[in-house]
Structures are given as C-alpha cells and as structure tokens.
Write a structure and sequence with these properties.
247 residues; mainly beta; At1g16640 B3 domain; 2 domains; nine-stranded mixed β-sheet; seven-stranded mixed β-sheet; 16 strands; globular; transcription regulation; DNA binding; transcription; B3 domain-containing protein Os03g0212300-like isoform X1
Length: 247
Amino acid sequence: MADSGRLQFFKVFLETQSKNRLRIPPAYHKHMEGEKRQVFCLLGPSGDTWQVILVKVLEKDSNELYFRHGWATFVKDHLIENGDLLLFRYIGESNFNVEIFGCSGCPKEASFRVRCSQGRRSSAPARCSFSQNPKFTTTINESNERLGYVVINRVFFSMWPNIPMRFARSYGLLQKHCATLVDPSGEQWLVELRLRARPHQLNMYSGWREFSSSNDIKIGDTCVFELLHGPEDSQSFSMMVHINELP
C-alpha cells in the first residue's frame, strides 16, 4: 500500500449492502496495490481492534475488494445502523483507524465503550501479523509412500492434515463441522472436519485436496494455520493459511 499519510475513505452504512461485507471504493483500490497481507486490523473508537479479511471478487467484468470475515462482528459490536457514516484512515502496516458517526453527524458515543467479541483484544494499534493470533504449524513430508505431517514436533502419517488436539480443545473447535481456509490470495475454501476416535484427532477432509492443489502445496512445504477470530456460527470457523512463511 502507498504511504499512509492522509489515505482515507468513507462509507455510508446501508444494512442491505454492508451488513456482512464492506465494499472498498474502486477509487481507493490503487492505494491497496502491493499490499501483501489479506488480514487487516480495524482500530475502533474504543481502542480495541477487530480483524477482517480483504477479499477480491470478480463482479461484472471488474475486480471488487471487500472486507469480509470479521466485518459482521465489527458491525454488531458497534451497533452500526442504516445511515451511519464510517471514516477509514490508513495508519500503516495493514491497520485502519475507524471513526463512526451517527445520522446526527456527530460521533456515536456508544462506539467508545464497546469491546471486541472476536476472542482477542488489543488496546493499541499493533501490526496485524499472524504472530498475534493462535496458530499451529504443519510441515508436509514424505514417508512410506504416503503424505505425513509434522505438527508441533510430533510425527504421524495421514492422507489428511489434522488440527492438534491441544489447540482444538483450547479454542473450542472439537464440535465444529467445517472450517474456511483463506489462502494467501484471499480466496476462501471450505473444508470438512472429522473427529476421529483412533487415533484421537481432528482431521481436515473434503476440500483439502482442492485447496492444496490450487495453492501448489508440495512435500516439504510448511503451512502456518492462523485462527483469525472466534467462530461466527456454531458449526464453523476461519483460518488464514501462510504457505512457506514462518513467523
């Protein structure tokens, strides 16, 4: 992205269009060029930060940019309503400061008292990097003509990667049926999860092969799975996948 300087844009909130995703003005796209990260932090008036994912969508022969996963939580936590005006100021390193104005034209007082419900809080605009979030690392190896995965220094052999049980228990993932994987380009992939009894582990199944094939994941590659935020429903959650990019 270009130098932060005075880069800013505003949006009038319309629930039918912006409840679950926020469209970035096309005129602002040029300022996003060269931005390598898809995970952005929004610093609210209260000082807490919310994580959102920047995704690219092809619509009517043109690319549109949206803030997606995490945006609905930002809207809900701030009680944003139809007609509210949101001012986004880029403050560097994938961080935006967001000011919220009501229909009166004045800042919404309630927005200064809210807290982030994504399961992570921050009182300062830190760089939105995957080292801030829960994560686990998987390295793809070859053994006995099967794919094996080394997870937190423990070797096992499987056609499918698993989520370490300690990690899954710590963040309430054992009852989830699916996960959305976000690749480095921002594309999202739905994978099925299955909890196996023997050995006791939570595996990724349907959807993983498509994800790994599309992202050209090979034996010897290392993947860091970053838990982006708390689940937005009772059945799924989202993870950013960093390929050959260690913290």
